[in-house]
Known about the structure:
This protein is an alpha+beta fold. The chain has helices spanning about 1-35, 230-240, and strands at about 35-45, 55-65, 70-75, 85-90, 100-110, 110-115, 120-125, 130-135, 135, 140-145, 165-175, 175, 185-190, 195, 200-210, 215, 220, 245-250, 255-260, 265-270. Helix content is about 15%, strand content about 40%. The strands form 3 sheets. Strands 10, 11, 12, 13, 14, 15, 16, 17, 18, 19 and 20 form an 11-stranded antiparallel β-sheet that branches. Strands 2, 3, 5, 6, 7 and 9 form a 6-stranded antiparallel β-sheet that branches. Strands 4-1-8 form a 3-stranded mixed β-sheet, with no helix packed on it. About 25% of the residues are buried.
Amino acid sequence: xxxxxxxxxxxxxxxxxxxxxxxxxxxxxxxxxxxxxxxxxxxxxxxxxxxxxxxxxxxxxxxxxxxxxxxxxxxxxxxxxxxxxxxxxxxxxxxxxxxxxxxxxxxxxxxxxxxxxxxxxxxxxxxxxxxxxxxxxxxxxxxxxxxxxxxxxxxxxxxxxxxxxxxxxxxxxxxxxxxxxxxxxxxxxxxxxxxxxxxxxxxxxxxxxxxxxxxxxxxxxxxxxxxxxxxxxxxxxxxxxxxxxxxxxxxxxxxxxxxxxxxxxxxxxxxxx
Length: 273
């Protein structure tokens, strides 16, 4: 009888020990899943001008597909402060790993944006690295939309897209052939960024591609002035670009399709450098 009671006592002790170890494992593992992440780096610009007084720095993490703000931090810039400006953005919860994220920085003075980057810098919160954000003077870079404060950045293009690492020259806009050397252009890099010229001004944006569907996100453009004819063609190009929903590629010819099903932009591929 005694050995049986002893065996039962030992088994109960082992069971309690196993339960305690299991609970400890859960308690130790759970904080790691929700461990805070800190994104660090600096914000700078290339212009040789002093920062205004007063000024403040705002750094925001956005979800690239929807433009949703995940986290944001604001800090005053000391008088006579100079770039680079260091930032530290604390994330109290790890963002969903299946999404894509980017950082947007703004330097404000008395509520007005003085510098900012319109194209977010891609980051991976699950594997944070020191990230430098280059901002542009607000007077030199204009948004392609009416309200630049609305963040609505599209997701990165899948690397399987046939448009990756290709450059194109626009030959017609809304069926009208473009004559002369100053033609708009579109280039696609391997990370989903889109760049080119409208004929007068350089621009940058992002693209979302799924099958033969394509849409272009919010971007920015320089603010140069050209002759009236060039500016008119450029305005028509940017207007058409905002309405694109699909594409058809046949070898070195690319047609970008609008919501009505009409070909809004027809392009020819540039020879590889």
